[in-house]
């Protein structure tokens, strides 16, 4: 008799993970639902939630209802401490270094498909699944069929040896199809809006976030490329490369070109000067043996278009990248993901 495979589904309380759970049950898997609590519930009660975020008390309630509807075991995992250590501390550290961090990228590798995945395996699960939009084909990570919803950019941190035990049922569907499936089978969150912001910043108030941790953010000068001081900034963490709103009337449109942590100043420049032809990336994760030179397309932020590039791989694990066209807003601390068509080749952190 064929043994039924056990799958631990990361059930967030949203429509995507709910449909992933339903699809796996339909395919004959023995499913257990795992729901993460990354920050204390009191944060969502004390703060004004500006945008939909994950892991809130209402998400926990929705996840419980979904698990109950499909009669699957439901486990709440309180991982607040390790999330604070691995993700929130990283977020703070990068900001204080004048960089722009990407906590969701590292949460996927270290938390969802790190800590939670290990808990599920220790519980006897054969696989772990989530509602992310991406595909795993022959042990490699690929974009979802729905390119508008594709989340391979954020999943490119997951080490290749984990892909064999990871299932992404939604990669074959569009978001509209997923919502229709949810509505058809009576999942109550079929029209629930997607999470948009960081779970530990539900009010999107970065200044209050630092103040609550006793971190004082000092303002400083805003200067032009030729060194002229044209105003003051509120603190380096509140700005990112390519940002246009800087609160200064300069008589022309100026964008943040660079942040200097040592001098605590921001360099601003006209739009043309914020385009770059090259970048250096510290390799973080690779799905194949990289040759010393290769061509690819690269995405340097989730919502940015991919750009063709040439890559030289250095002995120290850095990638020297030359864009085929000048590229806007290359930002230290952000993530670069390299593709060969729909296949993810590797990912890394932009250094400069």
Helix/strand layout:
Layout: E1 6-10, H1 15-26, E2 30-37, H2 42-46, H3 57-69, E3 74-78, H4 80-96, H5 103-122, E4 127-129, E5 134-137, E6 140-143, H6 152-155, E7 166-167, H7 175-184, H8 206-212, E8 220-224, E9 229-233, E10 255-260, E11 265-269, E12 275-286, E13 293-299, E14 307-313, E15 318-328, E16 335-340, E17 343-350
Parallel strand pairs: 1-2, 1-4, 2-3, 4-7, 8-11
Antiparallel strand pairs: 5-6, 8-9, 10-11, 12-15, 12-17, 13-14, 13-16, 14-15, 16-17
Helix pairs in contact: 1-7, 4-5
Question: Care to describe what's here?
Answer:
- By secondary structure, this protein is α/β, with parallel strands linked by helices.
- The chain folds into three domains: 6-184, Rossmann fold (3-Layer(aba) Sandwich), CATH 3.40.50.620; 217-269, Adenine nucleotide alpha hydrolases-like domains (SH3 type barrels), CATH 2.30.30; 274-350, Beta Barrel (Elongation Factor Tu (Ef-tu), domain 3).
- The protein has eight helices and 17 strands.
- The protein has helices spanning 15-26, 42-46, 57-69, 80-96, 103-122, 152-155, 175-184, 206-212, and strands spanning 6-10, 30-37, 74-78, 127-129, 134-137, 140-143, 166-167, 220-224, 229-233, 255-260, 265-269, 275-286, 293-299, 307-313, 318-328, 335-340, 343-350.
- A six-stranded antiparallel β-barrel has the order 12-15-14-13-16-17.
- The longest helix is centred in the N-terminal third of the chain and has 20 residues, at 103-122.
- It is globular.
- InterPro entries: MnmA-like, MnmA-like_C, MnmA-like_central, MnmA-like_central_sf, Rossmann-like_a/b/a_fold.
- Belongs to the MnmA/TRMU family.
- This is tRNA-specific 2-thiouridylase MnmA.
């Amino acid at each position: 008799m064929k043994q039924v495979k056990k799958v631990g589904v990361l059930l967030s309380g949203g429509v995507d993970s709910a449909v992933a759970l339903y699809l796996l049950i339909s395919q004959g898997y023995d499913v257990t639902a795992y729901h993460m609590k990354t920050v204390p519930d009191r944060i969502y009660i004390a703060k004004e939630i500006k945008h939909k975020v994950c892991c809130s008390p209402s998400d926990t309630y929705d996840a419980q209802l979904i698990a109950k509807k499909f009669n699957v075991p439901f486990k709440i995992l309180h991982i607040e401490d390790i999330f604070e250590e691995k993700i929130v501390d990283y977020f703070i550290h990068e900001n204080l270094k004048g960089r722009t961090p990407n906590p969701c990228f590292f949460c996927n590798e270290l938390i969802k498909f790190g800590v939670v995945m290990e808990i599920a395996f220790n519980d006897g699960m054969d696989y772990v699944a989530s509602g992310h939009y991406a595909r795993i084909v022959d042990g490699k990570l690929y974009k979802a069929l729905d390119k508008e919803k594709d989340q391979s950019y954020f999943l490119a941190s997951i080490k290749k040896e984990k892909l064999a035990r990871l299932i992404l049922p939604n990669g074959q569907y569009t978001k509209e199809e997923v919502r229709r499936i949810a509505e058809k089978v009576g999942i109550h969150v079929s029209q629930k809006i997607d999470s948009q912001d960081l779970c530990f910043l539900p009010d999107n108030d970065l200044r209050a976030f630092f103040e609550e941790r006793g971190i004082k953010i000092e303002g400083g000068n805003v200067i032009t490329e030729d060194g002229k001081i044209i105003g003051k900034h509120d603190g380096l963490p509140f700005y990112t490369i390519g940002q246009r709103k800087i609160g200064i009337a300069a008589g022309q449109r100026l964008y943040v070109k660079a942040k200097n942590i040592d001098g605590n100043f921001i360099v601003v420049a006209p739009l043309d000067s914020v385009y770059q032809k090259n970048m250096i990336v510290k390799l973080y994760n690779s799905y194949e043996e990289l040759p010393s030179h290769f061509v690819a397309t690269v995405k340097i932020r989730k919502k940015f278009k991919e750009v063709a590039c040439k890559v030289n791989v250095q002995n120290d694990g850095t990638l020297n990248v030359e864009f085929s066209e000048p590229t806007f807003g290359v930002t230290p601390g952000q993530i670069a993901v390299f593709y060969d068509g729909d296949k993810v080749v590797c990912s890394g952190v932009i250094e400069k």
